[in-house]
Task: inverse folding
């Protein structure tokens, strides 16, 4: 845990100054440098080494340009510890703190915080968690809070991917999110759902249940408005970049559920990786190869023709 926090702190500090000085930071080199440094330090019982935000800020504000400044600073610190330390015995901590504050205060970007709030509220919570963690505890605690919130956000996005209903834009063969495009019209007897994520074990059940919920809601809506019965469910799979065994089982369960309700499952535009796994699992044989289409428009045309042929 200490190593992870140390690495996170060093990379975060490096990226901050890389943005200020307009240069690129190589994360691999940072890890190699930190690893080598800590291996060497462990042989002499050194404390875990990482980048110091306060000292880096002081170094930056002093106008240092090259790594030679670190050598000079190390020599000065060593000299201070060995010789000059007694002279600092009566120096108030407030004075030492003021030096750090004066160096760090220029790194606070208020406009960036406002932008984060406008763009993503979860990122803002992570930012505030890091800020208050550093202010009231330590840099390590602040980073730990920020990383934990970020991991929670990623897990939430992975386990609950976005699924949307698609409708046809009038006068075109384009199908888009009905929430984003209110003018997009629903196709009678057809429900079109798009899954905006890979389907893995962590979200396969959610995708299946959310799709069935969309279908149930549309069936109730069609019944209330006196529209034709839902006979087809089209899943737009172009955003699905991958699928695992749990995802295959989820699609199979969805197919069986729809079959009991006399609704036909149709897949539109599965990617090459997804298609290979559908073939390997032979799920395409259950669904029917003639029920897998290149585009949503092709699938809708098929559904429309089939609906017209039925008595």
Result:
């Amino acid at each position: 845990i200490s190593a992870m926090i140390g690495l996170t702190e060093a990379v975060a500090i490096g990226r901050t100054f890389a943005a200020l000085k307009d240069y690129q930071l190589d994360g691999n080199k940072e890890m190699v440098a930190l690893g080598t440094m800590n291996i060497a330090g462990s042989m002499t019982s050194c404390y875990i080494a990482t980048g110091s935000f306060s000292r880096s800020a002081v170094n930056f504000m002093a106008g240092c340009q090259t790594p030679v400044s670190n050598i000079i600073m190390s020599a000065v610190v060593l000299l201070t510890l060995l010789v000059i330390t007694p002279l600092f015995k009566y120096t108030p901590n407030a004075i030492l703190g003021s030096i750090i504050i004066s160096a760090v205060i220029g790194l606070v970007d208020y406009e960036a915080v406002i932008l984060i709030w406008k763009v993503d509220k979860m990122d803002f919570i992570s930012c505030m968690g890091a800020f208050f963690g550093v202010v009231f505890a330590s840099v390590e605690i602040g980073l730990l809070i920020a990383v934990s919130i970020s991991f929670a956000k990623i897990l939430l996005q992975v386990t609950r991917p976005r699924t949307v209903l698609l409708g046809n834009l009038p006068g075109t063969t384009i199908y888009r999110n009905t929430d984003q495009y209110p003018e997009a019209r629903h196709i009678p007897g057809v429900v079109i759902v798009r899954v905006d994520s890979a389907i893995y074990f962590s979200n396969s059940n959610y995708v299946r249940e959310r799709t069935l919920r969309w279908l149930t809601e549309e069936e109730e809506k069609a019944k209330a408005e006196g529209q034709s019965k839902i006979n087809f469910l089209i899943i737009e799979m172009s955003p699905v970049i991958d699928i695992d065994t749990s995802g295959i089982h989820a699609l199979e369960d969805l197919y069986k559920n729809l079959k009991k309700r006399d609704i036909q499952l149709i897949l539109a535009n599965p990617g090459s990786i997804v298609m290979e796994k559908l073939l390997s699992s032979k799920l395409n044989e259950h669904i029917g190869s003639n029920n897998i289409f290149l585009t949503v428009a092709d699938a809708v045309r098929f559904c429309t023709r089939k609906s017209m042929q039925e008595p």
About this structure: The chain has a mean pLDDT of 85. Residues 2-119 form one domain. DSSP finds 13 helices and six strands in the chain. The longest strand covers residues 163-168.
